[in-house]
Queue: 2 jobs
Job 1
Amino acid sequence: MTDLSMTKTPLLTVEHLTMRFGGLVANSDVSFVANNAEITAIIGPNGAGKTTLFNCITGFYTPTVGRLTLRHPDGKEFLLERMPGYRISQKASVARTFQNIRLFGGMSVLENLVVAQHNKLIRASGFSIAGLLGLPSYRKAESEAIDLAKYWLDRVRLLDFADWSAGNLPYGAQRRLEIARAMCTEPVLLCLDEPAAGLNPRESAELAELLTFIRDDHKTGVLLIEHDMSVVMRISDHVVVLDYGRKISDGDPAFVKNDPAVIRAYLGEDEDAELPAEVANDLPEVAQNDVKRAEEGA
Ligand SMILES: Nc1ncnc2c1ncn2[C@@H]1O[C@H](COP(=O)(O)OP(=O)(O)OP(=O)(O)O)[C@@H](O)[C@H]1O
Ligand SMILES: [Mg+2]
């Protein structure tokens, strides 16, 4: 008997995505599938086109060419390349975080999470001031929004900081708060742009645990741009590698890690290129031997 829980269902299908800025091609004919309730990592050297890909998925940019289809688990389909950004977050339920933190620094930690749920709250107000002032449905929606905010604050270990100004939190806590804020919108697809950047090893391990919880317990699909290979290789179900805007590899972590095209992209064609420290420990020995040989002038 087939175990349906093991069946992969496509959530985001990217077909022939090309994004040009004048003469610069940031994404070139990129195609891949990200499955529901899986973590799909997007990796690649600086300038490879990872953030541009996110900007196309979330409607910040309209792709020059290509189709981006999001299929919800209930079967509803959205052609993202035809939708403006605000509809992609509201209707298609895609949430994202940014490479540089974008919280409301002057608002409290809790307020940041309640404000993120404004669509739900505005609907419950009946789009009127009268609604805001007294409708029982609004009061109910507001208390549900606070409950959801507290649930996610607890998950990211920030419940004790609910009344702090978000801007006063330490850096690692701000990163976690951003993820909690995105999850408060109850997304079907969560896009994270370098969430481990600037975290210490303990915080990175906690982040990895949070992302697997989001995948396994909430069945949310996660697209993860990340340079920290220890996080990527440990938690990803699927890895897509970009280099100079093109997809150069696509498969499970073990496949991608040993793919000569990936090793070349990180090492460069240049034999004496230095392997970046954050990838050195995670690439196979053969690549590291190449570096040693180059250093020894072999
Ligand atoms: N709005 C824009 N206008 C012009 N060029 C852009 C724009 N956005 C991105 N680019 C260019 O597209 C290329 C890919 O950039 P992108 O930010 O997507 O790379 P990345 O893979 O996210 O890199 P990093 O790892 O450094 O964050 C770069 O050459 C960048 O300069
Ligand atoms: Mg980027």
Job 2
Amino acid sequence: MPISRRTLLKGCSIAATAYGTGLALPAARRAFAGAPAELVAHEGSALLAAGRPTGAVMTYGLGGAGDGVPPVLRMRKGEEFAARLVNRLQEPTTVHWHGLRIANAMDGVPEMTQPYVYPGDSFDYRFTPPDAGTFWYHPHCNTLTQMGRGLTGVLVVEDPADPVFDAEIVLNLRDFRLGGDGQFIAPFKPRDAARSGTFGTVRTTNWQSEPVYDAPAGGLVRVRIAATDVTRVYRLGLEGAGAMVIALDGNPLAAPFPLDLCDVGPGQRMDIVLRMPASEGMVATLSNVKGSAPWTVARFRAVGADKKRSLRDVGALPANPIPVADLKAAEIIPLEFTATAEHGARESICGSLGYTFWAINRVAWPGDTADGVAPLAELKLGKSYVFRVANRTPHAHPIHLHGMSFHIVASNQPRLLGHATDTILLQPDETADLALVADNPGAWMLHCHIIEHQKTGMSSYVTVT
Ligand SMILES: [Cu+2]
């Protein structure tokens, strides 16, 4: 499928006009479990590739074991959520709640915000998510192995004011690096880590190959997509149905636009509303078209009588209360992302890949903790800042900030501006301005979410006091 740059820009880089004025439907009220969840990190086996089960898979179980894809954790905006991480792995771990603007002590970065959770130990997380949307959770320790083996789960923050759709489907997109025998192989190749990252060999959606989901014919379906892979940038397109993008990285778009080959990098999310085909049995196909040959991510099969819904009924979701920076008063902080020839990898409890290929402002992160490294910036609580990020490499980098969301307010390349996010997929040679209010005290990591890049230098932190 030939894709012109023009086609790409039409869908994802420039917002189209708004559609409709919102669904005239009652607000969602789902039953909600108030009891603290017990999130058990453990090893098991799972059927990931055709043939035989893969051993040494890592996953989370709720309450007990469970060897499948980590559960979708549902919580509610403005309501306290509590979970006890129980570590039944053979190594230390933690949980980071990607995209949630919560207290620093709950952020899950070992040594920086909390102690390591050693095998057999547990840690209680308790926080109140301020924003509704699609987020995700994963460890922040020995991440290439722990995430690579399965520890990436989707997190949904509901808002009682969310419109109700005819169905909701969550897609957790990721690869596994398996050999021909279905077992894990080396998680990376140094040569690839110094480039765009090492890709998996088995592509999955919710740990399945090309799953098919049933949804009401002619209905509107909210599909929450999370790219939780350690390396892959997806470019998503849909055949057989129309769809609107309603949120990016958890945050609603003021003006939803038609899905048309949108890039979603590691750590990023995209919420779409698709209008199912009208006739029972008809199928819409979501594909990844990045790379040489398109492949199927998921299929949606129409069931039942035609609900006769229209994408024109899809309006903007309620906005999240992200503070808006005062650009006139904002201090500009330059952040340069570069390749480096320095070799100073340091051993750490959370594992080292043994190489240093990348740097931020010419400093390479030495290990998993901030030991001996000065923060990139010391921000004053309540002040506005613009991070002027510059990608001086020929590779895309999904740059993620913990604890605070930012608005992308300028770029030297065509892209959607003005929306809030926690992760920007910084393109080769791109310079962009990320505006934020430093409203959350603590030490917050800022790193590339291609995990090999993160773990070979492209990682650092800022402080807010
Ligand atoms: Cu990177």
